[in-house]
Amino acid sequence: MKKLLLIFLFFGCTIAYSQGKDTTNLKQQQVDMLGQELQQQVVTLQELKQQVETTNQELEKFILDREDYLIHISIVLGLIGLVITIFVGIAGVVVPLIMDSSRRKQVKDIEAKLIKIEVIETVVKGQRDQITLLQEKIDKQEKAAKEFAEEANISALFSEAYNEKDTTKQIELYTKVIGIDPENALAYYNRGTTYSKKGEYDNTIADYTKAIEIDPKYASAYYNRGVAYSEKAESDNAIADYTKAIEIDPKDASAYYNRGVAYSKKAES
């Protein structure tokens, strides 16, 4: 029994030793693996540290370069500002001078044009004045020619009327004269005299009256109108016309005589 127990114990120890040895080997392997991983992490950490140092160096260099760049930019901007200031200063002096010179030139050009315009206007005005004078002269000549033609025509009509024996034709001729010259007192007077020959005393008085309106000093018209009134037995009107004729021509004996006759007829009536 004891032997059997010892045998079991021997086998149990053997098994336990084997198992313990296997476990120790396994742990040793795990330790080795952990050591290797640790070494790898250390290497990786060193690489990372090296990268960080490199990055820091590059960053410092970048910062230094940036500072140099900013300095250069500041210098360049300062120079640009200085150039702009100088340019503005020069422009402030030169530009007004240029503009003033340009304006002066423009003013001179305008003055020259104005002088030229004044000269042209003077010439045009002179020509217009000459044209006006010439036109006035032409108008006067045309008026004179027209008046001469009218006078010639009137003279011809008067001459024809004087030579005409027919009173009706005489009246027509004097009427034509009046048509040419409505202010011709002699035409009204002669036509009135012709109406008197025909015994048309109303027409006679009307024409003498028109002749007197045109020429208030027409003594013969007053006298002959007085005769026409006498023919119509209008003694008061006849006396008034004879009196007016005497006032204008105090030496007209016929007017005195006829007025006396008119007074006589008035007294008889």
Task: Provide structural commentary.
- This protein has 269 residues and is mostly helical.
- It contains seven helices and no strands.
- It has helices spanning 2-163, 167-180, 185-197, 201-214, 219-231, 235-248, 253-268.
- Helix 2 (167-180) runs antiparallel to helix 3 (185-197).
- The longest helix is centred in the first third of the chain and has 162 residues, at 2-163.
- The protein is rod-shaped, with a radius of gyration of 74 Å.
- The termini are far apart.
- 17% of the residues are buried.
- The model has no long low-confidence stretch (mean pLDDT 80).
In short:
This protein has 269 residues and is mostly helical. It is 91% helix and 0% strand.
The total of beta strands comes to 0
Proportion of β residues? under 5%
Q: Whole-number radius of gyration?
A: 74 Å
Elements, N to C (H/E) = HHHHHHH
The span between the termini is: 226 Å
Overall pLDDT, averaged?
Answer: 80
By secondary-structure content and strand pairing, the structural class works out as: mainly alpha
The number of helical elements comes to 7
Identify the overall geometry: rod-shaped
Q: What portion of residues is helical?
A: over 70%
**Low-confidence spans: pLDDT under 50, at least 5 residues?**
none
Major beta sheet summary: none
Please specify the SSE layout and strand pairing.
Blueprint: H1 2-163, H2 167-180, H3 185-197, H4 201-214, H5 219-231, H6 235-248, H7 253-268
Helix pairs in contact: 1-2, 2-3, 3-4, 4-5, 5-6, 5-7, 6-7
Keywords:
single chain; 269 residues; mainly alpha; 7 helices
